[in-house]
Write a structure and sequence with these properties.
Layout (H helix, E strand, L loop, with lengths): L1 H23 L15 H13 L1 H8 L2 H4 L4 H5 L38 H4 L4 H9 L5 H8 L1 H4 L5 H12 L5 E2 L2 E2 L32 H4 L2 H4 L10 H7 L1 H9 L23 H5 L40 H12 L5 H35 L12 H22 L3 H29 L20 H4 L3
Antiparallel strand pairs: 1-2
Helix pairs in contact: 2-3, 13-14, 17-18, 17-19, 18-19
Length: 459
């Protein structure tokens, strides 16, 4: 009798487990459960966007924000009187064809989320970022860029090109964001709440992934091309070669502040050297830290001596920080000798290329053979500009980041040819006392040359 009961129970249990196993194989609808207390207005946002913009909803649902119960309201909710309130958004609260489209769920919201908004949860990151050259790049750009200051391109060329990375000065027009300034997620965007930048330049909406920001492809959105080809330089370097070969083994999802060389990754990415914590160095969102040369400037100077935006740092202290990062993977001799050759490359660029070319340019202006009223309307002005802005940057950056083809063939080799052509034409003008030919129909000029008052105040 006991044997029969045991057999019957065993059969029943087997059937139960089989049923459970079979049930596990059925596809299930993914459910989003909000464990943190979410106000009805927050639920309304989620339900509405789930229907109207499913891509945004899906991105957010997969984010750490969603896991922590952070909803649309935590980032987008505006306060009465805010300058960037989305007036048109209110109309969605009176539409019967939308889930929860009722007035009782109305909350004023702002479309652009700013570092000031993010600082409610990420105060240290926002403070570090605010001091960086990234956040202040509009100021830097207007202080050194002849395209803007001379109006040699159009406003739309700037918006689709320069401002896409550098950022716009956001403005409202007729209760909406001015299309002349929006959409934009540039690193130096001037927001209506007075904050600078956009965290979504690197942590894109609406996942805001740490993993994404650690990958060099993210930096390569802006740091590429003839004038600042950091992504191309990285890919050519040994660091980039190892990354491409082994990136499938990298643990990009390591917790913030815990991303460790030799454990989570084999060779560094841009973020590893310039931002991530390593060795004794904490994580920073100020990319101006750890730099001992201003390699993008016409004349290479120390970051604290860069007049358009002095870093306020001591280059020796910052170099030691970067050396500490390097020494997580390299021996002392390797690191010290690398800096010796980088310093030599800087010296040779400054003394043998830039300074003589700048002296010649100034002589031509003094003699009246070049016209100062506009820049780029004479060939020698373009030659001089590209000598430092293109080949000169590639030579210096290629040397600093160990990319031999950019240090030489795309760098110093092309510096020589640009320099020789510049000097030949300049000497011919001086010897013949001939004024340089001016392009009479330089195309599509007329961009506004007024410096933004939001950055510089009234001029």
């Amino acid at each position: 009798m006991r044997r029969n009961v045991i057999i019957t129970l065993a059969i029943a249990m087997t059937a139960l487990f089989a049923t459970a196993a079979a049930a596990q194989n059925f596809p299930k609808v993914r459910e989003l459960r909000m464990d943190r207390a979410t106000p009805p207005q927050g639920v309304a946002c989620i339900e509405c966007h789930k229907q109207e913009t499913p891509g945004i909803f899906a991105d957010w649902a997969m984010s750490r924000h969603a896991s922590a119960g952070i909803t649309c309201l935590d980032c987008h909710q505006a306060q009465p009187g805010d300058k960037d309130i989305a007036v048109d958004h209110e109309k969605y609260y009176s539409r019967g064809d939308m889930p929860m489209g009722e007035k009782q769920y109305f909350v004023p919201i702002a479309s652009p989320v700013t570092p000031k908004d993010c600082s409610r949860c990420h105060p240290d990151e926002a403070k570090q970022y605010s001091k960086s050259k990234h956040a202040n790049t509009i100021e830097v750009m207007w202080k050194i860029d002849p395209w803007l200051n001379q109006g040699m391109n159009s406003d739309n060329e700037r918006k689709t090109g320069c401002y896409y990375c550098h950022g716009t000065v956001l403005k409202m027009k007729d209760g909406k964001l001015d299309p002349a300034t929006w959409p934009n997620v540039g690193v130096g965007r001037v927001n209506l709440d007075g904050s600078l930048g956009s965290c979504t330049s690197c942590h894109t909406r609406h996942r805001f992934s740490v993993m994404e920001a650690r990958k060099p492809e993210t930096c390569g959105q802006c740091h590429l091309g003839p004038d600042h080809p950091q992504i191309e330089i990285f890919n050519e370097s040994k660091h980039g070669d190892i990354y491409q070969a082994f990136k499938h083994e990298y643990n990009f999802d390591s917790a913030p502040g815990a991303w460790t060389p030799g454990v989570d990754y084999r060779a560094p990415t841009c973020a590893s050297c310039h931002m991530s914590g390593s060795g004794k160095q904490p994580t920073t969102h100020d990319v101006t830290e750890r730099l001992s040369w201003e390699l993008q400037a016409p004349l290479t100077v120390r970051p604290q001596d860069f007049k358009p935006f002095p870093s306020g740092t001591d280059w020796k202290v910052e170099r030691d920080k970067m050396k500490d990062i390097c020494k997580q993977c390299h021996g002392t001799a390797w690191v010290e000798d690398h800096y010796t050759q980088t310093d030599k490359a800087v010296e040779e660029y400054n003394e043998n290329y830039f300074k003589p070319a700048k002296k010649m340019l100034d002589d031509l202006y003094t003699k009246g053979l070049l016209d100062k009223s506009k820049f780029f309307d004479e060939h020698l002005e373009v030659e001089y500009y590209e000598l430092w802005h293109h080949e000169g940057r590639r030579a210096r950056m290629g040397s600093a980041m160990m990319a031999p083809d950019y240090a030489w063939w795309h760098g110093f080799y092309e510096c020589k040819h640009r320099y020789n052509k510049f000097m030949e034409e300049a000497r011919h003008l001086i010897e013949t006392n001939t004024k340089a030919y001016k392009y009479p129909d330089f195309p599509n000029t007329g961009g506004d040359t007024t410096k933004p008052v939001e950055v510089f105040g009234k001029q």
